[in-house]
Request: fold
Amino acid sequence: MSTSSAYKMKQFDTKKAVFTIFTGLCKGCGLCIQKCPVNTLVWSDDLGVYGTPAVQPKDTDTCTGCGMCSVVCPDCAIVIERKK
Ligand code: SF4
Ligand code: SF4
Reply:
């Protein structure tokens, strides 16, 4: 069975949350970058569904785990799991 490229993903273990980006869903619109309250999202070297850069947190310290990026993403490409 082959796995759909939509489920290609990358995880970042940050202090407050596990940040998962499904690069195969990201269309590179930049909305999450604009809306992150602590400006921790940057373009990544990994490519999204249209061959444009996907996104990632710039470091493991800044993300607060607020979930805003996940809420605003039109393609549900980001999942935030807050740590206790
Ligand atoms: S969870 Fe919040 S702080 Fe972390 S990257 Fe997303 S919008 Fe930014
Ligand atoms: S909002 Fe979603 S589709 Fe747009 S750049 Fe961010 S992760 Fe990619």
Q: What stands out?
A: The chain has two helices and five strands. The CA atoms of residues 10 and 21 lie 5 Å apart. The pocket of iron/sulfur cluster (ligand 2) is lined by residues 26-32, 55, 73, 75, 77-78 (CB under 6 Å).
